[in-house]
Amino acid sequence: MINFFDNKKLYISDDLYVECNEVSKVIPHSHDFLELAYIINGSATHIINGKKIELKKNTYIIIDYGAKHSYENISKNLVIFNCLFKPRLIDNSLAYSKSLAQLISHYLINIGFEISQHQFIYNVFNDTDDVVLTLLKKILAEYEAQSTGCIQIMRSILTEVIILTMRKVEITQRIYLTHSEKEISEIIADINKNYLNPLTLQEFSDKYSTSISSLSKKFKKQTGYTYSHYIQMKRIEQACRLLSNTSEKVIIIAYECGYTDMKHFNSIFKKIMGTTPTMYRKIICCKQR
Predict the structure, then answer these.
(1) What φ, ψ does residue 264 adopt, rounded to 5°?
(2) Tally of domains in the chain
(3) Which of 34, 129, 222, 276 is most buried, taking the most CB atoms under 10 A from its CB?
(4) Which alpha helices (H) appear in 121-211, and where do they start and end?
C-alpha cells in the first residue's frame, strides 16, 4: 500500500493532494486515502480489484481506501486530474470513513435519498456537462495559489463535487427503482431527518399497508442493516460529530443523541465504532495534531 501523504511533499494539508498530469504508466497499487481520478483527455482501461472498466474523457472514478488498482491500454495524451483526500478534511467525524459509500451515508453529505449499494461497485461517474471538471479546476487553482482560506474553500468545493455526484446517481437510480424500493428510500430519508424520534416500523407498515415482517426484510435487503441498527448508526454518527468538534462532556453528548443510559450508549458506540466514545475522541484529537 502506498502511503502517498508520507512520501510526497504536501504544501497545504496532510489530508489533501491535487495534481493534473499526462500519464503513460500506472503500476498496481493501493493507498490509505480516497482518490478522485478525472479523465480530462484520452482514455484507458482502469483495473480495480481485478475488474476492468473503460474510462474516457469526462468520466471520473472515486477509489476507496485499500482498493488495488492500475491502468492499461493507455491512449496517447492521457491526462488525469487527481484529487487525493482523507475524509476528515471535510469534517473530523468522517475520519473513520474508508469508502465512498461510507462517506455519502454521513449526514453532512447525505442528500436525503438512499443510494443503492450496487451503485458503488466501481464508483464510475460521467460528467458530460463539465460541471464537476469546472469545480475540480477551482480546487487546483486554490491549491496552487495557497491564498488565505484556501483549505476552507477547497473543503467546500470538494463537498459540492461529492454531493453533485450523488445527485447524478440519484436521478438515474430513481428511474429504475421499484415501488417497494421507493418506499424504503422514503423511510431512510425520514430516519436521516428524524433519527432522534423516527416513526416505528409499525407506523411505517400502516402507512404503506404492508406487514412489519415484510417491511423489515425489504429494509435489510436494500440497506444491509436492520431498521433498529440503522437508527443507532445515525445517532452514533451524530455523537461522533459532537465528540470530534466540541468539548462537551460525553454524558451530555449521549443525551443529545437520544441516550439516557450511559452504559447502553457506550455499548452501542463500541459495537458500531469499535472503540469507546472517550477513546474515539482521543484518537481524533491525536490525528488533528
Answers:
(1) -65, -40
(2) 3
(3) 34
(4) 131-145, 150-176, 179-193, 201-207
